[in-house]
UniProtKB/TrEMBL annotation:
Its main location: mitochondrion. This is Mitochondrial import inner membrane translocase subunit. It comes from Dekkera bruxellensis (Brettanomyces custersii). The lineage of its organism: Eukaryota, Fungi, Dikarya, Ascomycota, Saccharomycotina. One of its GO terms (molecular function) is metal ion binding. Keywords: Chaperone, Disulfide bond, Membrane, Metal-binding, Mitochondrion, Mitochondrion inner membrane, Protein transport, Translocation, Transport, Zinc. The gene is TIM13. One of its GO terms (cellular component) is mitochondrial intermembrane space chaperone complex.
Amino acid sequence: MGSFLGFGGGNKNEGSTAPAADSQALEVKSKIKNSIAQEMATAYATGLVNALSENCFQKCIIKPSDSLSTADEKCISDCASKFMRSWNLISKEYISRINKQS
């Protein structure tokens, strides 16, 4: 029989709900972390594409026209490759420094 208005007395389920609540809280926290990580990855990729496009367009397309010349295509390809190598190098170093600080 339960206690009057929920005051006093013990509840057999009291101990078992705390671990379930902790488990649910951890699951929610994990989902939020994953969601934030996905959003950051999307923002990172978008920033990369935007920066690459802006830099390579300014460098390679001197006289815009309705089509790209062979020289324009080669310049864009070389620029994009160089930009990606640089971006990857900087990213790896940044991650390495963050991991050292942790």
